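Lab notebook, design round three. We kept the backbone fixed and only want residue identities now. Task for the bench partner: fill in a sequence for the structure below.
Input structure tokens:
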């Protein structure tokens, strides 16, 4: 994947960069695996705003992704590599021997025509193959990792991410997360071999504010630029610093303040992420 520049006919295009999408082989999704997607505008099920700066954006359709990889011992052939507007990674359409088709996250270096396999026993360590952690060798880069058996992948699903297996002890495997945190995960949980595709996603320059509006991100205003009624950092004469430790609009400490309260899973974290 390569990054392209634009002819600077406007000031925003001078800074803007984009992907060439040369890896993609299909422009339209497979219709039986497409569903309507309703926008939430950052609201939860009660209608309360739970995530700020969300709204608008281009209309999208959801592609149903197979995160569980539970098509066991059935070889599948990669038919297409496609763009997905709902995630930063690319997706691949897999056709199995019985005719069923499913979308999966595309690992890096996966090509059209290759065969992938999901199994409950050890298979070849090739990009796209899925198996329980107990059968994956130490040092292997993996993605789409389950935290609970048969729940489906939850870890390392964004573009360019990947976790690494460090050690195995008893029923648990120690994995270095993309955040550098080391965590213990049960060896019966599944993972997929390889690093997630679209490694250059992080190197893109947005170029202009309107491009963020296209993807549903509304403007973000600094707290120090607001009035006191709108934010704890607001008000003051001139460019005031705020006079207190950084907080959110609701007064919750932020920028390094630890908010984790889940003591039940504390035992699975071997080492915290490094700052």
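Proposed sequence:
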């Amino acid at each position: 994947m390569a990054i392209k520049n634009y002819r600077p006919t406007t000031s925003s295009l001078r800074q803007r960069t984009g992907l060439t999408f040369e890896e993609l082989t299909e422009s339209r999704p497979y219709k039986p695996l497409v569903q309507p997607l309703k926008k939430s505008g950052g609201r939860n099920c009660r209608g309360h705003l739970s995530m700020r700066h969300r709204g608008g954006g281009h209309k999208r359709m959801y592609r149903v992704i197979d995160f569980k990889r539970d098509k066991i011992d059935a070889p599948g052939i990669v038919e297409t590599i496609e763009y997905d507007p709902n995630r930063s990674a690319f997706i691949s359409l897999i056709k199995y021997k019985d005719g069923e088709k499913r979308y999966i996250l595309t690992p890096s270096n996966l090509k059209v025509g290759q065969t992938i396999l999901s199994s409950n026993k050890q298979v070849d360590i090739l990009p796209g193959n899925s198996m329980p952690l107990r059968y994956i060798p130490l040092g292997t880069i993996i993605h789409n990792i389950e935290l609970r058996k048969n729940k489906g992948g939850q870890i390392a699903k964004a573009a360019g991410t990947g976790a690494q297996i460090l050690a195995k002890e008893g029923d648990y495997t120690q994995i270095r997360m993309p955040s550098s945190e080391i965590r213990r995960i049960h060896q019966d949980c599944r993972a997929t071999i390889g690093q997630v595709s679209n490694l250059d996603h992080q190197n893109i320059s947005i170029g202009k504010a309107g491009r963020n509006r296209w993807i549903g991100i509304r403007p973000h205003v600094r707290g120090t630029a607001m009035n006191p009624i709108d934010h704890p950092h607001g008000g003051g004469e001139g460019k005031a610093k705020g006079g207190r430790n950084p907080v959110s609009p609701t007064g919750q400490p932020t920028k390094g303040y630890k908010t984790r309260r889940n003591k039940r899973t504390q035992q699975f974290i071997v080492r915290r992420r490094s700052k």
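Keep this in mind before ordering anything: The CA atoms of residues 231 and 249 lie 5 Å apart.
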